[in-house]
Design a protein that fits this description.
This protein is α/β, with parallel strands linked by helices. The chain is 38% helix and 17% strand.
Length: 253
């Protein structure tokens, strides 16, 4: 069944009449298709079924508790960028051990709460953030799992306002700096370097930029291994495009 279709001239979402919804709840009303959400998530799960993986939903895209609950029931992880988003994941039944905390400007209170919840990983954007987290974790008598966000200097071919993977975008750190931060983390008793991550933007219409970014991260992983630092995961970020006008992004081919 199509997510949205007309029956007798009346627009439906799945088998629910939008006219009936408007009559009952008024307008504007936001209506989401559970089936569409589940299908999209399971498509990713199926594509990655041959390798160990965790699909983390970006809560900033839509923090509706019902949607988060549907994804949590499917086994999704979550990518959060604030304490509010983290608390919404918990309220919706999400598993903190499947949460990665991304974003710049994390406050001490946010990091402390995430430590208390024992989240899966902190995605670190700078040396200052790394050292602040180390101090908090040390004071709490725990070890913080961390990943460094690397800027791979890759052109994702998207709009400059939503591009995050080029050096001039100033998101993440250069590879050479990341290598230094991993050495700091490896030597600190309150930090555990478990992964590496990058995010190159949104509305990406080709897969080549993802491949280029992955090659950059794999080279870094190899270099770190020679230093005795063995990471457990790669967090490859960026948004596949959607078909607004004449675009033909990968998920529509």
């Amino acid at each position: 069944m199509a997510t949205f279709s007309r029956h007798d001239g009346i627009l439906h979402c799945e088998d629910v009449s939008l006219e009936a919804i408007a009559a009952t709840y008024g307008t504007p009303t936001y209506l989401y298709s559970r089936s569409a959400i589940e299908t999209a998530f399971l498509d990713y799960q199926s594509a990655l079924s041959d390798i160990p993986h965790l699909i983390c939903y970006a809560v900033k895209a839509n923090s509706n508790l019902a949607i988060l609950n549907v994804l949590a029931q499917l086994g999704a992880g979550f990518d959060v960028v604030s304490l509010g988003e983290l608390e919404r994941v918990v309220a919706a039944g999400g598993d903190p051990s499947k949460v990665v905390f991304s974003g710049v400007g994390k406050t001490a209170a946010e990091m402390q709460r995430a430590l208390d919840l024992k989240i899966r990983c902190f995605n670190i954007e700078s040396e200052a953030e790394l050292l602040s987290l180390a101090e908090l974790a040390d004071g709490a008598g725990c070890v913080a799992p961390i990943s460094i966000r690397v800027n791979p200097d890759v052109d994702a071919g998207t709009h400059p306002y939503i591009s995050t993977g080029l050096r001039e975008n100033k998101f993440g750190v250069e590879v050479a700096v990341a290598r230094q931060l991993y050495q700091i983390a490896e030597e600190h008793t309150a930090l555990n370097p478990v992964g590496v991550d990058c995010h190159i933007g949104s509305q990406i219409e080709e897969t080549a930029p993802f491949v280029e970014s992955l090659e950059c991260l794999l080279d870094l992983v190899h270099d770190l291994r020679t230093l005795g630092i063995r990471l457990q995961h790669i967090d490859l970020g960026g948004g596949l495009g959607v078909n607004y006008q004449a675009e033909t992004p990968p998920c529509y081919r």
